[in-house]
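Exercise: predict the structure of this protein bound to adenosine-5'-diphosphate.
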Amino acid sequence: MIRIIPKPTDTPEDNSTQMVLDALDTLNAQYELLHLNEINPFRVPCKGDLIWVCGIRQNGVEFEQIKALSLTNRLVNTPDAIATCASKVMTSALLCHHGVPTPETLFTASHEAVEEFLIKHGKAVYKPVYGFDGDGIFLFSDISDLAEPPYYIQEYVRNDRDFRVFVIGYNAVGAIYRQSPHLTHNIHKGGVGTPVEIDPAMREITEAAAKAVGIDYCGVDLLRTDDGYTVLEVNGTPNWHCMAAPIPRLMAEYLVREEESLKK
Ligand SMILES: Nc1ncnc2c1ncn2[C@@H]1O[C@H](COP(=O)(O)OP(=O)(O)O)[C@@H](O)[C@H]1O
Ligand SMILES: [Mg+2]
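Solution:
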């Protein structure tokens, strides 16, 4: 059985879950919705199922619930992969560990270390460790602009756009570039997304990023550099805004395929 945990932030105008449900209907696939507020983690209600986590609330409860569900079911994405992606520190650690290009990054509680980073780079990008949608990200050149540690700060990569590549089963399937007049090109920050061809360098780096994290499907954010691309982050519950590729159908096919392979 395929079970689906709907994205809590879905709206009637922007409903990621429904798009994939419609695609599953087209494939004549059977599925049921699973609502986390009805789940008792100490009495997991299903077993041997494929559970698609379209999204969860970062409220300290829902993550534990999907962890409990993963005791007896196959989750897409796995809770471990979702947790890794939620943390920019863990994502960076895995990218570096696997040699995937990413901007020079510092994670520290030390003011001296930040000062040294600023001397080397002149300015840097501050990001909240568990941030998303571009929230809380800013460019700074003076340590007095920072509040309390921890500090996750990154070399500023000059750009006029970023790229979001959708990867399913370690295969890059769709890409857009995003442009805005400010630092963060996220769609939620007013960035405008335009479909773009997946070039070989983009394919290589995004599939390597997905493998480094070990994730069924993801959205990889990139910036262009003089010698290719660099990975900013990997999103574990990504949307596919502005993509020209048929992501809902590809997601539905992936879920059906993975559920079939559970029976083997
Ligand atoms: N090192 C950087 N240099 C220049 N711009 C950056 C850098 N890091 C992030 N940005 C901009 O900020 C956006 C959001 O950063 P990202 O790391 O993807 O965090 P979030 O999880 O908030 O989306 C990026 O898509 C990009 O437009
Ligand atoms: Mg991002």
